[in-house]
Amino acid sequence: MKNTLNEEKLKAHFTDEDKKTIEDCSSEGLQFLESDPETEAIEAKQKELEAKNGLENYCFQMKNTLDDEKLKTHFTDDDKKVIQDTSAEGL
Questions:
Q1: What is the pLDDT of residues 4-47, one digit of tens each?
Q2: Topology, domain 7-90
Q3: What 3 state SS string does 25-84 have?
Q4: Residue 56 pLDDT
């Protein structure tokens, strides 16, 4: 693990026993964070929210594409209906 200059200065003031205690506490803390169910639940919820936001963003982009003057002529009425219905369903 990369240490900053300030960390090195702080470590110089500790005894070897203090350093060992700090390292043990740090590794135990990291293990606790890695296996914390609450943290995992938060991360899962965050991923779910990111996916939802991505889907909504895509739906808005598709709806805006229908209104683009350069692209309007490339869509049939059936295409427009499918895009509108699908976008509305995603929102």
A1: 556 666 666 666 666 666 666 555 555 555 566 777 888 899 99
A2: Substrate Binding Domain Of Dnak; Chain:A; Domain 2 (1.20.1270)
A3: HHHHHHHHHHCCHHHHHHHHHHHHHHHHHHHHHHHHHHHHHHHCCCCHHHCCHHHHHHHH
A4: 93
